[in-house]
Amino acid sequence: MFDEALAEQQKVLDPNDPDDVAFYQAVKQGYEQSGAKGYRQKALEFELTILKKKYTSPFFVAGEAARAGEREQAFQLLERAFQEHDEWLRWIKIWPPLEPIRNDPRYTDMVRRVGLAQ
Question: Which range marks the domain in which residue 31 is found?
Fold first, then answer.
């Protein structure tokens, strides 16, 4: 799965976008060193760096955190998304990257706070 993901990322890589190139290199290195967990961890680290440099949706970064197994960080980022009125929160119930945290009561609470039926 990750081999295919890396191959697809390489195909669509914009060589003129330094962030695009850096992301690809980071996740490739993470995958080569530690497999899927390394890929996820490097993706999260990269997105957190981008979040500090320029605006990106904390909702999306929360998904990376959830995939990387960083539950606390995922919920901190979802809270930030909520505080910022992030429009992407409307997808909280169906966005696949959040699957690892759906069984947490904080997830149910966030869905309620966003105003979506459970």
Answer: 1-54
